[in-house]
Write a structure and sequence with these properties.
heterodimer; A: alpha+beta; PmbA/TldD fold; 9 helices; 19 strands; B: alpha+beta; 2 domains; 8-stranded mixed beta sheet; 20% helix
């Protein structure tokens, strides 16, 4: 970490004590990205950025006040302290919040890959140009590649406080995204997909292109189906999107504030016995791997649903104190306001069937490959959702014609109870993984609206 | 702050190795917020954002770099030179001289938000929370919050343009949650304005709290919405999100300029029912989505997008202008310095028509009356859009009947615009936040009450 930043934080913590803060903590975050975008055989956009911000939190008059700045010079220290103090004067948080003294030991962690630091403009440009060229060559019906990015990014974070805690971590990664449109007659379809690599030997341009090219061509000719209650296989991509949308229900903060469907349900059966849901901070090679959370609590493995039974909520130190339990290491944010709670790597344990076996079990129904409008088409508290979707018909256990312009509507918590089978088609550490993962799910009786 | 001479040196460095146009955007934003949950102040924030973005164009290709470090000119010059080197082309070799500074004041606040004590804001928010809570015993949670930003920007480019703008926006959000044994439903209002604290001071927060509580209480006893294609009457105000999604995004040069939009090459052609006229108007005084000058330094405009169903204009920024051969409409916007600007909406709405809202309902035999909308999204290439309905009722025999919940409306922009068969006379604008390639920006959506003769309604029933 930059010596100027270390000196700034040392000075900030010292001045905070002089200003009467009982406890104080600084969180510094910095990231840099280099991004190249290709279109029609040219590099059309190039970005190369660095940014950093510093946030301060301090305990004064029994309240933890916050302030943040992107102007990190010694003359900004008074601004941070005055603003945080002013915020303390209006806060009325009842729970006692303190800064953490830190762990004796943190797990071994390597999220920074030296090999990736050799990625330069030329590598990104060649990658983006090759991806576009290969995708256009995949099929003559692919009319254009509208989005084609190659990105190298790195980030570092440091937390230091008046109790002597000092945590630092550094990560980097290489991402690509390709999105294209295909046309046949008057029918236009689009499809896009992204990957995150930490090992360049796993990156194969043709493999990426084949996945996108095949899907967009398969989507040509898609039509709605008639409105009905139908069995559905939710592809892992659609299933994880749903899980991500309702993950907030497991936050102890939401539960304590009464804005979760899971209020008072701890210890009860909330899902079919086939369902086990786990949050795990450190999975080597996963999309989000952090040795500590935003309070400096070390990463943990928490079983939220154990064979259908709701066994634990996600906690930070504040909510853990209220419930008389240990933090699960899920504190998040705290750079521009109070600390919140978020999952780390959250996943349903995989089942025993292949995806094809789910289709066979279903017989006739719909295979949903994507859902849209998740920021609006859900009731995050009640679990209700109604989402624009697309996919394929399943006829006699086999993939049939493409389907679009339909919605699927149900309730997430009802889905947990009625899920009929889970596939084994999820891997938590591939370049396609996100930090929230699910295998494909077979669900009976989902409301499908179409024609 | 960087001097005019420093900015000239950066703009010159940005053309040293390639590029035909360079631009600097500097921003300093102060933001404060206060939020209450169940009457208790749970969060307050004070943030300072500061940064510079440097953009270089060569034809329709662009390079964008940004940094927070405004106090190291040497580093900024180095960044500008290296950005210039990455854009192949003939170096313009031009020394940039800026014209005298032109000062804009997009939002003329009366009371500076940061001059008001947070405790004063807390008092009014707490009262609103209490009003919502006391509305009904079914209300179990309330939240009330306010956030304001004061943003100063400096925009300069190699054509010699040098403008500054001061922007100020205030928003208030009130939510009430009603609970039953198995369900929780919420009612929400989030008005905003291009004004200072006077907006919050003037706002009838208690009335908003009652309305939010009333929606939550109505929706807790609502039945699941039916599914299928049917007529839908969409209420005024935030109902305009349908036009924003079904049409607005696809008129942005971001999509039209690369011919990926479903409305490419449609100028002068009919794309909507003849009773539809629509604007993107950044010049409405004190509106949440308004501004005097865009993020490329171009003065804003009142842009007539559709006249009597005929496509009249697109939303065009500088790169779009180069790609499309049409002038900029002054719509280049960005969340902050960490995004390059692109074509975006401001206050986008369907203009008032002639029908009375009550007649539109009386004229509808069977369908849905969607009163309050949530957000949505769109694929501008296929025109496929979706958006959520937060408060809705069945219409039978021209009468508004029971409340229904959980509906999402989907369709294709080109088809839905043609299916608008009634436009009311009760135009209203509502405030929201639009997320797209250049980040989250404040926008208004709006419309009078309209009817769509047929649209796919996705519900649980």
């Amino acid at each position: 970490m930059d010596k100027n930043i270390q000196d700034f934080v040392t000075e900030l913590l010292k001045k905070a004590e002089e200003a009467g803060f009982i406890e104080a903590e600084a969180v510094y975050g910095a990231d840099s990205t280099m991004s190249v975008s290709a279109r029609e055989g040219k590099i059309v956009e190039y970005e190369n950025n660095e940014s950093s911000s510093l946030s301060f939190r301090g305990l004064f008059n029994g309240q933890m006040g916050y302030a943040s700045t992107e102007d990190i010079r010694p003359e900004m220290i008074p601004f941070l302290l005055e603003q945080a103090k002013d915020n303390c004067s209006v806060l009325e948080v009842k729970e006692k919040i303190t800064v953490y003294e830190g762990e004796k030991e943190y797990p071994e962690f390597n999220g920074f890959f030296e090999e990736l630091t050799s990625i330069d403009y030329d590598y990104l440009a060649n990658t983006a140009l090759s991806l576009e060229q290969a995708l256009l060559a995949y099929d003559s019906r692919i009319e254009a590649v509208d989005d084609c990015f190659a990105v190298y990014g790195s980030a570092e974070i440091m937390i230091r406080n008046s109790k002597g805690m000092h945590c630092e971590s550094r990560t980097n990664g290489f991402d690509v995204y390709i999105g294209c449109r295909a046309k046949e007659g008057e029918d236009v379809q689009t499809y896009g997909k992204g990957w995150s690599f930490t090992d360049l030997s796993q990156f194969n341009i043709q493999e990426c292109v084949n996945k996108v090219g095949r899907r967009v061509i398969d989507k040509l000719g898609a039509k709605p189906v008639s409105s009905a209650k139908l069995p559905v296989v939710l592809d892992k991509v659609a299933a994880r999107a749903l899980l991500a949308s309702f993950a907030g229900s497991f936050s102890a903060e939401a539960i304590q504030k009464g804005i979760s469907r899971l209020v008072g349900k701890l210890g009860e059966v909330i899902a079919d016995s086939k369902i086990t849901l786990i949050d795990e901070g450190m999975i080597e090679g996963s999309a989000l791997c952090m040795p500590f959370d935003s309070e400096g609590v070390s990463a943990k493995r928490t079983v939220l649903i154990d064979k259908g039974r709701f066994t634990s909520e996600l906690h930070n130190r504040k909510t853990a104190l209220v419930d008389g339990v240990e933090s699960t290491g899920n504190a998040t944010g705290g750079t521009k306001g109070p600390l919140g709670i978020a999952p780390t790597n959250l996943y349903f344990e995989k089942g025993q069937y292949t995806q094809d076996e789910l289709f066979e079990k279903m017989g006739n129904g719909i295979y949903i490959t994507a859902v849209y409008g998740l920021h609006a088409g859900i009731n995050a508290i009640s679990g209700d959702f109604s989402l624009m979707s697309e996919g394929f018909l399943i006829e006699n256990g086999k993939i049939g014609k493409p389907v679009n312009q339909i919605t699927i509507a149900d309730n997430f918590f009802d889905v947990l109870m009625k899920v009929e089978a889970l596939a084994n088609d999820v891997d938590y550490t591939t370049p396609e993984s996100t930090h929230i993962q699910s295998p494909s799910l077979l669900i009976p009786d989902v409301s499908v609206a179409g024609e | 702050m960087l001097t005019k001479e420093s900015i000239e040196r950066i703009l010159t460095a940005a053309l040293s190795h390639g590029g035909d146009f360079s631009e600097v955007y500097i921003e300093r934003t102060r933001g404060t917020s206060v939020s209450l949950l169940n009457g208790v102040v749970e969060g307050t924030g004070s943030n300072l954002e500061l940064g510079i973005g440097i953009r270089i164009l060569e034809g329709d290709r662009s390079v964008y770099v940004y940094s927070n470090d405004l106090h190291n000119e040497e580093n900024l010059i180095r960044m500008a030179r290296s950005a210039s080197a990455s854009i192949s082309g003939v170096p313009a070799g031009k020394t940039v001289y800026l014209k005298p500074q032109l000062g804009y004041f997009s939002q003329k606040y009366e009371i500076q938000p940061s001059s008001i004590k947070k405790s004063e804001k807390v008092y009014k928010l707490r009262k609103a929370g209490e009003t919502a809570k006391s509305y009904s015993s079914l209300i179990t949670q309330t939240s009330a919050s306010t956030a304001d930003v004061e943003k100063d920007v400096w925009i300069a480019n190699s054509d010699g343009l040098y403008v500054t703008d001061h922007r100020c926006r205030t928003r208030v959000m009130i939510q009430a949650i009603a609970s039953s044994e198995e369900d929780k439903q919420s009612g929400y209002f989030g008005p905003g304005s291009g004004e200072g604290y006077e907006f919050f001071e003037r706002l009838d927060t208690d009335e908003l709290a009652r309305k939010a509580a009333a929606t939550a209480v109505t929706m807790i006893s609502a039945k699941p919405c039916p599914s299928g294609k049917m007529p839908v009457v969409i209420g005024n105000g935030f109902g305009g999100v349908i036009f924003h999604e079904a049409c607005g995004h696809a008129l942005e040069a971001t999509a039209v300029g690369i011919k990926s939009s479903c409305f490419t090459d449609m100028l002068g052609k009919q794309i909507a029912s003849p009773i539809v006229t629509a604007y993107d108007d950044a010049k409405i005084s004190k509106e949440w989505g308004s501004y005097e000058v865009d993020d490329e330094g171009t003065p804003s405009s009142t842009n007539l997008l559709i006249q009597d169903g005929i496509l009249n204009s697109y939303l065009i920024d500088k790169i779009g202008s180069r790609r499309m051969g049409q002038p900029s409409t002054g719509c280049a916007r960005r969340q902050n310095y960490s995004f390059a600007p692109t074509s975006r909406m401001s206050n986008t709405f369907i203009a008032a028509g002639e029908s009375k809202p009550e007649d539109i309902i009386a004229d509808t035999e069977y369908g849905i009356y969607a009163v309050n909308m949530g957000g949505g999204s769109v694929d501008t290439t296929t025109g496929e859009f979706n958006f959520a309905v937060n408060e809705a009722y069945m219409i039978r025999n021209g009468k508004v009947c029971e409340a229904v919940k959980g509906a999402t409306l989907i369709g294709k922009g080109g088809e839905i615009l043609m299916n608008i068969d009634r436009v009311g006379n009760d135009l209203k604008l509502s405030q929201g936040v639009c997320g797209s390639v250049s980040g989250n920006i404040p926008v208004d959506v709006g419309q009078p009450t309209i009817r769509v003769s047929e649209i796919t309604v996705g519900g649980q029933a």
